[in-house]
Amino acid sequence: MTTPSPLPSVPAAPAPAAPPSTPSTPSVTPAPRTLHSTWAPSYADRRPPATEADLDAAAEILRGHRVVALTGAGISTDSGIPDYRGPDAAPRSPMTYQQFVGDPGFRRHYWARNHVGWHHVNETTPNAGHRALAALEHAGVVTGVITQNVDRLHTLAGSRAVIDLHGHYNEVVCLSCGHVISRAALDERLLALNPGFLEEMTELGDVEIAPDADAVIEQTNHFRTASCERCGGILKPHIVYFGENVPKERVARAYAAVDDADALLAAGTSLAVQSGLRLVKRAARDGKPVVIVNRGVTRGDELATLRLNAGTSQALEHLAARLP
Ligand SMILES: [Zn+2]
Q1: CATH number of the domain bearing residue 266
Q2: What's the first-to-final CA gap in the chain, in angstroms?
Q3: Given phi > 0 = left and psi -120 to 50 = alpha, else beta, which region is 243?
Q4: Does 264 reside within a domain?
Q5: Assuming Cys at both sites, which of 32, 68, 208, 213 could form a disulfide with 95, CB separation 3.0 to 4.6 Å?
Q6: Does residue 250 have a known ligand-binding role?
Q7: Deacetylase sirtuin-type domain location, by residue (predicted)?
């Protein structure tokens, strides 16, 4: 779905607003993105791919421990959801909360793309990596999954103790009254407001889908958005965006999950955002083993007991076959 490209250079500040207010939207439009940071790896990963022996070593480190898993976009790439930060990711600019709230044109553009993207993301299914973590939980090895993804694939795979750190794409919240509705309920309204739009966009060809159900489409000026049925307020995906904080209660639950475990397994995340990195720091501070499975370098590499340059499906299946 993405073409290989160099590691993205992440802008040092939130991208400027790009209101799609003119009829001919430029072909390169900043794609809305969820929580982002200014961190980018300053060096390439020169480690060879992990061997069977490396994977066995990871299993030995985790054996006998109660393991909390921390996952990111890399675990969902095998489900067809592109990783916007991985080695193959195309450069992206994050959408900011301020853009979304401050610009009706930006919101219209965002919801039009989300309308298309949601239908695609909603059809994705868990892969071997998600299933392995669910199996490890059922086996009593994994005590919980903290995910930075908003795709709900851990829950669909059967994981029970899931903390969706950044929210998930299947809920929508009113910014005025706080009312939460399902994305499916909003879909019915958007379909009624925009007859034929979905078909028109789908016919245009291969739609590129992002982890937060954003789709890269350009002609969105005639899209009609929906507002809160209770108060007329602005509706927003119930996702933590750049410029927003993870709700305190959720942060506390994530720390509690780390404190409750005695080892941490980070999988498919570059740990670029603090919301994930600080959990790894917490585990390392307390002397708990930390295993990182990721293609490419991560911001938490120096905290790791063992780092594996490996895909999550392969590595987690390997661990599930050897643990407990
Ligand atoms: Zn409302």
Answers
A1: 3.40.50.1220
A2: 36
A3: left
A4: yes
A5: 32
A6: no
A7: 47-324
How many angstroms is it from 180 CA to the middle of ligand 1?
A: 9
Catalytic residue numbers, as ranges: 166
Report how far ligand 1's centroid is from the alpha carbon of 7 (Å).
40
Please check if 91 is assigned to a binding site. Answer: yes
pLDDT by residue for the chain (324 residues), tens digit each?
Answer: 333 333 333 333 333 333 333 333 332 223 334 444 556 666 666 778 999 999 999 999 999 999 999 999 999 999 988 776 555 455 456 678 888 899 898 899 889 888 888 887 788 999 999 999 999 999 999 999 999 999 999 999 999 999 999 998 899 999 999 999 999 999 999 999 999 988 887 776 555 566 565 665 667 788 999 999 999 999 999 998 877 889 999 999 999 999 999 999 999 999 998 899 999 999 999 999 999 999 989 999 999 999 999 999 999 999 999 999
**Is position 126 within any domain?**
yes
The answer to the question of whether 125 is labelled as a binding residue is no
Look up the domain containing 296 and give its range.
52-322
Ligand 1 ion: residues within 5 Å (CB): 174, 176-177, 179, 228, 230-231, 233
* Residue 204 covered by a domain: yes
User: Is 16 annotated in some ligand binding site?
Assistant: no
Question: Residue 272 half-sphere exposure, CB side, CA atoms within 13 Å?
Answer: 27
Report how far ligand 1's centroid is from the alpha carbon of 79 (Å). 34
Q: What is the pTM of this model?
A: 0.81
Q: What is the DSSP string of 278-321?
A: HHHHHHHHTT--EEEE-SS--TTGGG-SEEE---HHHHHHHHHH
- How many other C-beta atoms can be found within 10 angstroms of the C-beta atom of residue 192? 10
Q: What is the DSSP letter of 82?
A: P
Q: Is residue 198 part of a domain?
A: yes
77 is in an annotated binding site: yes
- CA of 199 from ligand 1 middle (Å) equals 29
